[in-house]
Amino acid sequence: MLSRVCPILRHNRLCSTEAREMSRATLRLLQPHFLRSSPRTSLLNSANHLDVSSSNFSSLFRRRFHALRSTEGDYKLPKPSGRVFAQRREYRKTRRRAPKKKQELELIVSICIEEQLPGDLEIQNIAEMLRLNVPTAMKLAFDGLKDSKYKTRETDIEDLGGFENIELSVMLCNDDFICKLNKEWRGEDHATDVLSMSQHVPELKLPILMMGDIVISVDTAARQAAERGHTLLDEIRILMIHGLLHLLGFDHEISDEAEKEMEEEEELLLKSLGWKGKGLIQSAYDIERTAKPQPEKSDDRTKGDGLRLYKPKFSYIFCDMDGTLLNSKSQISEANAKALREAMLRGLKVVIATGKSRPGVINILKKANLTGCDGIVSESSPGVFIQGLLVYGRQGKEVYRGNLDRDVCRETCLYSLEHGIPLIAFSQDRCLTLFDHPLVDSLHTTYHEPKAEIISSVDRLIAESDIQKVIFMDTTEGVSSVIRPYWSEATGGRANVVQAQSDMLEIVPPGTSKGNGVKMLLNHLGVSPDEIMAIGDGENDIEMLELASLGVALSNGAEKTKAVADVIGVSNDQDGVADAIHRYAF
Q1: Residues 349/315, Cβ–Cβ less than 8 Å
Q2: Per-residue 3-state assignment (H helix, E strand, C coil) for 8-62
Q3: What GO molecular function terms would the record report (predicted)?
Q4: CA atoms lying within 13 Å on the CB side of residue 95
Q5: Mean pLDDT, rounded, for 173-202
């Protein structure tokens, strides 16, 4: 089954010893000859079936694909384009099994996990439960077919006595995967919670009842479970029952009577099995009655279980601080902090690349519990600081340090004293200044940099330590109309001017950029730029965004920065980092 998608399925390795000892078998692979969706589609977004019939048999609500071919009078299955492995007690290849005497009908159930779902323990445990639950539900549903008085159910599956065994596949996937199935087989480019794809061809009179495939989006199931107040397992069971009834001939889409009959059977099965929750049709009715219809969002990963159901596309995220991770109040939002924690739990490494000092970053992120060995920054973690002039690698050891020319340092200090414009010199983990000023204080109180030490003279400040960069602080107008034009000329190629904030101008060594700092760190770590995603806003982020496989500029960023970015995200005051991680990192 699922022959068109099986190359991207992976072997579901369940947790128990019993499961590991089960035999593996290649599933018989067939194309679906009809496909149905859940009432979430039919009630809120009416489904349109495409008629792609390729045989003499067709009906309004069925679609047939070529499934079998005949060779010397015997039916053979098409050669699979890939392998799908399932684990089920006593599962074996039916074609190779020796004929046996009449015995109890054998149910062969395969539970598959699509490869894009991460190896999450809860999902594996749910798959293990389904291995037990699905056969039980099938038996109960088959018993309900006997002497049933349903008028709308198609009766292709009626007498089970003519079959030796019955096969059914249940696959767990995410929204992206089920969206592709919808687009390919139904012509609808959106995700649904469950799809049913029948493989049964009654005219062939096979000894095997190949019921087909039930495909369930764990992503959508997680959101619906959160909305309806029950567990993910409860919701997946409900979706499985709905898909199973479709395969048994129920179809809520053809008429009101058919909808009522399928709803009754859903509720009856769930009650008989003792499972929590309402049937999918009844739940959809409840949504219609209590809420306005909302457009489907196939990529809303901020709800339900968030990123847990996705695999990372990258190995690293390099993220700027001011104007990016921090909002306009220089604070990190809970949404951004949560997204970073989720990303790290899913295996992504987050590296800060900023114009700030390392102590300044630690001071801010400590409040969000993002520091230390389990956080994204510490004195023993990699990072790019002070515009790439201080680069720390494994165990936080210094990889690179760039220093400003001492003559340029002297000239900037003299300019500061002469014009009364506050200046802060960055010297590794220290900030130095020549006089007290409210703007100097704001660098500590607002931007959380180390409190500036007042040095009594220019000569002493320069002799104090190596200086990586200096910052002039003034009004936005003063920086743009006076300070920047002057120092763009005065440096004379001995230094560069960089502007990350509108009210600050930075003087840095020539060739300085975060992009170069990120390059040096990647070389140190042995990581390719193709493995990274970068998020920034300022002109000082341009090289970093250009270097990354995916560069995201936030909407509040500089126009030059947005011009080179691959995508433009929402602003830093709208949790832009969290939004970018949810949309693009997985």
Answers
A1: yes
A2: HEECCCCCCHHHHCCCEEECCCCCCCEEEECHHHHHHCCCCCCCCCCCCCCCCCC
A3: endonuclease activity; hydrolase activity; metal ion binding
A4: 8
A5: 88
